[in-house]
């Protein structure tokens, strides 16, 4: 009998039918790439089973992700954490739509220059810091646009502590993006972008599935 290798990892045996891809894949790729790289239909039996009983490999990765993120996020206030999630969602959306590949280094640079602009403004100086790499420049533009829209919806006046909170959230993204590859050395690049993709997917799933406090990825302020 001919052994068919998984088309995703090309190393393990493909023995699990994937309705999203229309092909057989290996159980490991099914468990680790589900809803992250594979757009699983709600009818998939493996998806339903995983929500009720997460496989050990997925639970281990979630615990590892939390072990990296919690120390970096734990000091954020509730407003800062909400802004962090907003900026992360914008970053992921931009990465998916951009014609230029976005690296973790670009994310860190974009967050850093946007934070620096806010920090300078708090000192009464209007100066827009610029990123060097073009992908970082474009992402920084998206982040600034989101900040401007937030201010517009607030009636044109920035709420108290808004610049500080936004800068803190952006600095947190910068730090996380710079440290992700070292903290998660076995992950494929871009490590940070893949990480927050998992985080946001897991957060969406938990909106419909109650979780124990230690499993939550949204940290209260």
Percent of residues in helices comes to 55-70%
Q: What average pLDDT do the residues reach?
A: 85
> Strand sequence of the main sheet, in spatial order?
1-2
Gyration radius, rounded: 19 Å
Strand residue percentage: under 5%
The H-and-E topology, N to C, reads as: EEHHHHHHHH
Number of continuous helical runs: 8
**End-to-end separation:** 57 Å
Main structural class: mainly alpha
Biggest pleated-sheet summary: 2 strands, antiparallel
Q: What is the 3D shape?
A: elongated
Tally of DSSP β-strands: 2
Low-confidence stretches: 208-221
Keywords:
8 helices; mainly alpha; disordered C terminus; two-stranded antiparallel ribbon; about 60% helix; about 220 residues
In short, what is this structure?
By secondary structure, the chain is mainly alpha-helical. The protein contains eight helices and two strands.
Describe it for me?
By secondary structure, this protein is mainly α. Helix content is 59%, strand content 3%. The chain has helices at residues 27-33, 45-52, 56-73, 78-97, 104-122, 134-153, 162-183, 191-206; strands spanning 16-18, 23-25. It has a two-stranded antiparallel ribbon.
What's the SSE blueprint?
Layout: E1 16-18, E2 23-25, H1 27-33, H2 45-52, H3 56-73, H4 78-97, H5 104-122, H6 134-153, H7 162-183, H8 191-206
Antiparallel strand pairs: 1-2
């Amino acid at each position: 009998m001919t052994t068919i290798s998984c088309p995703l990892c090309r190393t393990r045996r493909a023995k699990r039918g994937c309705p999203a891809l229309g092909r057989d894949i290996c159980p490991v790729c099914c468990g680790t790439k589900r809803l992250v790289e594979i757009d699983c239909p709600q009818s998939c039996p493996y998806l339903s089973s995983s929500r009720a009983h997460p496989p050990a490999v997925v639970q281990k990765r979630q615990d590892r992700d939390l072990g990296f993120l919690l120390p970096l996020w734990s000091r954020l206030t509730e407003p800062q954490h909400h802004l962090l999630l907003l900026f992360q969602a914008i970053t992921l959306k931009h990465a998916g739509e951009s014609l230029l590949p976005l690296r973790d280094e670009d994310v860190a640079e974009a967050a850093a220059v946007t934070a620096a602009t806010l920090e300078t403004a708090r000192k009464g100086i209007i100066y827009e810091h610029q990123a060097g790499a073009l992908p970082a420049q474009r992402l920084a533009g998206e982040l600034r646009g989101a900040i401007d829209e937030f201010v517009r919806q607030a009636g044109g006046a920035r709420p108290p502590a808004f610049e500080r909170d936004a800068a803190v959230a952006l600095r947190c993204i910068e730090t996380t993006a710079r440290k992700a590859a070292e903290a998660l050395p076995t992950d494929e690049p871009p490590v940070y972008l893949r990480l927050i993709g998992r985080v946001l997917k897991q957060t969406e799933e938990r909106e419909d599935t109650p979780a124990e406090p230690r499993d939550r990825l949204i940290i209260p302020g």
